[in-house]
Structure formats: structure tokens, C-alpha cells
Fold Pseudouridine synthase.
Amino acid sequence: MSDKTEKLQKILARSGHGSRREIEGYIQQGRISIDGKIATLGDRIEVKPGTKIRFDGRILNIKESQKTVCRVLAYYKPEGELCTRHDPEGRPTVFDRLPKMQDARWIAVGRLDINTCGLLLFTTDGELANRLMHPSREVEREYAVRVFGEVDNAKLRQLTQGVQLEDGPASFKTISFKGGEGINQWYNVTLTEGRNREVRRLWEAVGVQVSRLIRVRYGDIDLPKGLPRGGWTELGLEQTNYLRQLVELNEETVSKVAVERDQRRLKANQIRRAVRRHAQVASRPAGKRPASSSRQNTGRKTTPKGR
């Protein structure tokens, strides 16, 4: 058996088609085929250019793992956007403003509800997204919370020691007071799971309402300073590999960020060379200028010797 083979559910999870557990369910239901043959649990394959994996008869977009570059975006989600790809009611979604890609797609690392803003990570690596979201990894999230209501030491102790919610016990790992007057106060809270509306439900369990909620950190990735709401920035190799190490994935060795930065630098150098060439031509006596000098600004490209 080739060392390049991987479990089918791992390949599909990495490509963003669901969690491993979800995909295992699809396999058991007979909904996935490999090159026309119904897949079974335990199938290992090597993804090649001609490999066709279908889900309910539809060919899935699968990339060869060794050619996939893991990319991660930090997005400042505004209030009013949904964490879904498509909304039947036509409301804005977090995917609307993200950069378009031809051979991959962005996968959200967790969710923020429609009334919550702040840091939301996206990646092209489905396996990375699934591991970061899994409760067993206990990746710390930090939120800035403005609350409305009386908060005393007893309530704070209760929130850190644990309260019973409808889906089980929950608690904040830390709570720190950040200021405010009267019954409108700001706190920063941390927790290590991402249950639906968990921060709001914890405060509501002790009789306090949340009037503003902002996620400011995921793991050691902070909401970038100066990033406007609805804006995004791509993480570099160091931060991407921090996230991968956090969930025991192999480090990346290349980054699209570095490539694009180098391209911008190359373009800037080309512009500087063109400016110098123009200045040299302009400084020559009129009788010694090339007859074609009037074409210098026509947009034609010239290739220096030896390049």
C-alpha cells in the first residue's frame, strides 16, 4: 500500500466537506463513491488528478494534500452578518466579503451569532478547522462583554464555578472587570468551548443581560488592531503554524502571504527601474535621444539584457 494513501473521511474533512464524524455517517449511508464504486468505512485512497469522489452523485472538489497550502484569514465580523454560506432570506453572510479563490474555499472556524461581532478565523484546511473547533482541544476564546444588570461577587463566583444550562454545565475560565458605570459594565471573559450563545446564556443564568459582545481573541490570535469591521487580513506563516501546532498538525513550509508580498516588492522594483530609465532618457541631449523615445509611455514592456 502506498504511503501516500489517507482515510477517505480525512481527505474530505480537510477539503471542507464536513467533520470526520459527519463524513463517516455519509459513508455508512452509501452516499459517497470513489471512481464509481460505493465507498465503505476504512477506505484509504491516494488522491490523484483523475480521482473522482462523488457525494449523492455530485463530484466533490478535492485537492492533492501535498499541493494544498494552508491559508488562514482573521476577519472582523460585524453585527448583522450570519455565519452561513447562503441565507434564504438574502441577509448578508460572513463569506460575502472574503477574497475569492478558484481551487479552494474558505471554511469558518466556529461561529458567532448574528448579534455578536469580533474575531472570526477562516482557513482553507478543513482538518485544521475541525480540530480547532473540537471541544477536546480546549482552545481558549476571549470576549469583551458589556452587561446590563447588577453584578456582585456571588454572581462572579457562580460564573467561574459553573452554572447548569439546558445543554449541560458551563463556566467561564476567567472573568476580569474592565470598567463602566452603574449597571452598564464591561468584562473580559474566557472559555474553552464554543457552544451556541454560550457567553450570553451564562450571564442570563445569573440574571444579567448581555448588551454587547465582541470576540477579541482565539487561542493566541488577537483581533488585529486597526482592522475595520467587515475587514480581513491573512495570517503569516508563523501564526498559521502556531494554530497547526496547537492541534497537532504538521507545520506549513510555504505561505501565500509571503508570495504575494514578494510579488508586490517585485512590482515596486520594476516601477523604480522604469522611472530610472525614463529619467536617463529624458536627461540626454535632444539629438541623441532614440527615435522611438516618444513610445516610452505607451505601456510597452522592455526586457533588460540578461534578465
